Amino acid sequence: MSLIKQLWIAIIALLLLSFIGSLAISITTSRDYIEQEVRIKNADNATALALSMSQLDKDLVTLELLIAAQFDTGYYRRITLRNTDDSVLIERSAEEYSGDVPAWFRQLIEFDVPNGTATIQDGWRQYGTLELESQHSFAYASLWRSMLELAAWFLLAGVISLAIATVIVRGIKHPLSRVVTQAQDISARRFTTIKEPRTLELRQVTQAMNVLSANVHQMLSHESHKLDELRRHLQHDRVTGALNRDVFMGKLSSQLGSEDARATGMLIMVRVQALESLNEQLGYAATDQLLNTLVTQLGQLDSASAEPMVGRLNGSDFIFMLPLMDDVEELRIQVMAALAEVAATQPDVEVYLPTAIVPYAPHDDRGTLLATLDDALAQAESLTSFEQVVVRQRKRISLYSSHAEWRNALEAAILVGPELAYFPVVDAHGDIIHYECPARLLLGGEWQTAGVFIPWITRFEMEPALDLAVVKKALANLEDDLKPVGINLSAASITNTQFVNELRTLLAAHPLLAKQLCFEVPATLSTHAIGSLRGLCTALRPLGCTFGIEHVGAEFTKLADLHDVGLAYLKMDSSLIHQLHASNEQQTIVRGMATLCHSLGIQVIGEGVADDEEIACLFRVGVDGATGPGVRL
Taking every annotated instance into account, which residue ranges of this chain make up the domain EAL (predicted)? Predict the structure, then answer.
């Protein structure tokens, strides 16, 4: 039984006990008082009437007239005159007054009052005995009215007390409900914090649980930063902080093999010409500072990523991957400005930074891209001008020639509705955890992958419309085949209030199907987007939906900010999984991430698994699931 119900029962029981006790004491006291008063009255009236009769002639007619006159006042129940041999000479009696008093009440009270008796004298001898009994039936009515008035008062007091108790209980219930919700969140490993209530006991409990949540947040922050430091130590160049060659190549292969929007963009390769000569002129410290400035300036070209993808291929060659960029001329201007900033840090020497820019697209061959970059870089080195930037344009077949055509085509495709591809996510036993369902849109007469249209969707701010259409398609598919599916939601959608309201309304209309939906959000979330994700989870979790984060790599440090969201799973970026079996350092990082996630009850899934060796190693280091081209049912 809930505490609130127990409180109500206690209040009602207390009121009933008070009423019954007050009623019993009141009736008992009143009955004793009435009995005492009637007893005295009987005795006094009997004595007074007997004295009057003793002074009269002992004529029965006279005595009877006197008794009749006294009896007719209505205050007597019975008056009897007996002679010395106890025979009745005169008797007057009346029926008991019952009025509207219930019989059970009269039986419950039942006054026990002795008759008043007195002796009638005739001179010096006894003439007879007078017995008198007052009419006390009216006392029943008086007590009955008193009981009704007392009951009415207690009823009124009960209503007032319950009204006051309702206000008090509501004041207790709201913070108590928050405390209960927080306790349930903590039991589900969602370490939330709440405002401390005013009630002392609840405040103490809340303080303890808030401290627990704060400690978990601190622990997560500490452990995730330790893992990030280990990752940086193992994967990054110690001088410049750029990615090592092998790590960058793994990330590049992962991006080229994916179908999301980041598989389209630009590759920039910069060579620090005559690095040995610069070392001699500037010294190692100044040269290292120059290289650091170069990496920083390249990284600032990508403002969307949590960690820009800048790699160091060798001592003098740096490569930069800039997703979602398609304006070559704008990029060229930005790159030249960045390189000028780098050169300006060393005005006393000539710093030559030949640069090559090449666009990339999904499923491009990595070797071909690098060969193109090398060729363009060689051409840049041969230039005599200070601005040594060469752009190698690639002939691309665009579906549409203008922005207006793209917008119209996307609106029409969303109106027709997307199709969903199904890629399995399996556990160590080969059982299905859920299916990844990236969207396809009908553009140019064919179903196109996300890498083709997502950049344009983002440019036209059509993410909420697309995501809502994808959810509708997923619900329609679930009606035919009830299997759990994972759907991507963009950061723009989860921060859109209208989208969240429409999504909740849509899912509330399909409660059974909603339980089969897993919503995945990108790891590159801003602080505002994390707050929106928290609100979205709170709104949709009662419907049975689950939530996860995909493409988690360097963004793992944000896990501490998501400890109270209630994530069901986390998908590690394929760059962490690529060639996992061949790298002890990667295994250490992945194992640490899995352990930390498991402490929060979060499943860990590896993305982009390529072969059986990676799958076996993945499960060996503690990951719960795998997805990618190497997963076969």
Answer: 399-633
Same domain, 27 and 113: yes
Distance CA 586, CA 592 (A): 10
Query: How do 432-436 and 485-488 pair as beta strands?
Result: parallel
Same domain, 228 and 242: no
369 and 407 belong to one structural domain = no
Alpha-carbon distance values, 420 to 11, 457, 470, 476 (Å): 59, 17, 8, 11
Q: pLDDT tens, 221-237? A: 787 788 778 878 878 88
Other CB atoms within 10 Å distance of the CB of residue 47: 16
- Domain of 214 in residue numbering reads as 189-233
Same-domain status, 417 and 332: no
**Per-residue b or e along 336-353, where b marks 16 or more CB atoms closer than 10 Å to that residue's CB:** bebbeebbeebeeeebbb
State the amino acid at position 485 in one-letter form: V
Q: Is the domain of 261 the same as that of 220? A: no
* SS3 labels along 103-166: HHHHHHHCCCCCCEEEEEEECCEEEEEEEEEECCHHHHHHHHHHHHHHHHHHHHHHHHHHHHHH
CATH number at residue 119: 3.30.110.200
Are the C-beta atoms of 46 and 117 separated by less than 8 Å?
Answer: yes
Distance CA 353, CA 380 (A): 9
Tell me the average pLDDT across 309-338: 86
Going by C-alpha positions, the residue among 485, 344, 466 that lies closest to residue 422 is: 485
Give the chain's domain count.
Answer: 4
Q: Is the model more confident about 98 or about 412?
A: 412
571 or 452, higher pLDDT: 571
Q: What is the pLDDT of residue 575?
A: 79
Distance CA 82, CA 117 (A): 11
Which of 368, 391, 414 marks a domain boundary?
391
Radius of gyration of the chain (CA): 47
Sheet hosting strand 355-360, strand order edge to edge: 309-312, 317-323, 265-271, 355-360, 389-391
**Residue 571 host element (H or E):** strand 569-572
CA distance 210 to 190: 12
366 & 409 share domain: no
Inside any domain, residue 142: yes
Which CATH number characterizes residue 538's domain?
Answer: 3.20.20.450
Query: pLDDT tens-digit profile of 27-68?
Result: 788 878 877 887 888 788 888 888 888 887 777 888 888 888
- Asked if the structure places residue 580 within a domain, the reply is no
| Tokens representing residue 390 in the block | 């060469």
- 246 and 296 share one domain: yes
Give the C-alpha distances (Å, rounded to integers) separating 515 from 193, 334, 565, 609: 27, 47, 18, 27
**Average pLDDT of 137-148?**
80
Closest listed residue to residue 315, CA positions, set 367, 272, 280, 353: 272
Mean pLDDT (the chain, rounded): 84
* pLDDT over 80 (residue 96): no
Determine the Cα angle at 513 with ends 507 and 515, to 5°: 85
Q: What is the pLDDT of residue 2?
A: 64
The reply to whether 608 falls in a domain is no
> Cβ–Cβ contacts within 10 Å for residue 394, how many?
12
Q: Clarify whether residues 200 and 81 are in a common domain.
A: no
167-190 mean pLDDT: 77
Q: How far is CA 413 from CA 191, 273, 439, 448, 462, in A?
A: 42, 49, 11, 10, 12
